[in-house]
Design a protein that fits this description.
By secondary structure, the protein is of the alpha/beta class. Helices cover 41% and strands 23% of the residues. The strands form three sheets. A five-stranded parallel sheet has the order 2-1-3-4-5, with helices on both faces. Strand 7 and strand 8 form a beta hairpin. Helix 6 packs across helix 8 and helix 7 crosses helix 8. The protein is globular and about 50 Å long.
Length: 226
């Protein structure tokens, strides 16, 4: 059964999310702040975290940073207040996979949860493949990326983005196209979302950062030297 951790200091919000996700067959666990969430993540495995930003004691951003510092790569959907663009961008830069703006539609929340899970849950072995560009190796079977034999740590969304770019090597891709394919067709995002993830992906790729080329007026393309 798919396990989801709901992290929010408002009991009403936790109950609403739990009820709607429970109807979809998901198993939900609750935490009231980031400290409790980190304790839960350390003792049990989850497939997704719904993480509120504004919480007492340990807030959502601090919790997210600590998760990634501990190499906890569980996908995260941030819950943000309406109009707080800074928090949304900071969350994406910190390793979040998506965000939902409060107040939110429960049906939209369920759709976003399913979309993230559809991209991040393990696929069948028959769907696996590898990409090799010099000493850069992308392996979808093991969900790993290695440079010169050393594995680099990517969030699930960064990995999906890199795989999509590799699939379309040499093709200029618009931000809208990337949003549709990597964030799913029903994702209503912003160009900044793509730019933020490209920036973070480049920071992980080291000597291969320039393999992701900015195509001015269009978007990006993956153009490795080898």
């Amino acid at each position: 059964m798919i396990r989801i951790l709901i992290v929010d200091d408002e009991p009403r919000i936790r109950q609403l999310i739990r009820e709607y996700l429970g109807h979809e067959g998901f198993s939900c666990t609750e935490a009231t702040d980031g400290s409790a969430a980190l304790a839960q993540l350390s003792s049990a495995g989850f497939d997704l975290v719904l993480l509120d930003i504004m919480m007492p004691f340990v807030d959502g951003m601090t919790c997210l940073r600590e998760m990634r510092a501990r190499k906890i790569t569980t996908p995260v959907i941030m819950l943000t207040a309406r109009g707080e663009e800074y928090d949304r961008i900071a969350g994406l830069e910190g390793g979040a996979d998506d965000y939902i703006v409060k107040p939110f539609s429960p049906r939209e929340m369920v759709a976003r949860v399913k979309a993230v899970l559809g991209r991040t849950l393990p696929k069948e072995q028959s769907d696996s493949e590898s990409f090799v560009f010099g000493d850069l190796v992308i392996d979808t079977a093991s969900h790993s990326v290695k440079i010169a034999g050393e594995e680099i740590s990517l969030t699930p969304k960064e990995f999906d983005l890199l795989v999509f770019l590799a699939h379309n090597k040499g093709i200029a891709l618009s931000r809208e196209k990337i949003l549709q394919k990597v964030w799913n067709y029903d994702y209503y995002g912003e160009d900044r979302t793509v730019d933020t993830h490209i920036k973070m992906l480049r920071s992980h790729l080291g000597a291969h950062r320039d393999d992701i080329v900015t195509v001015w007026g269009v978007g990006y393309k993956f153009d490795p030297a080898n």
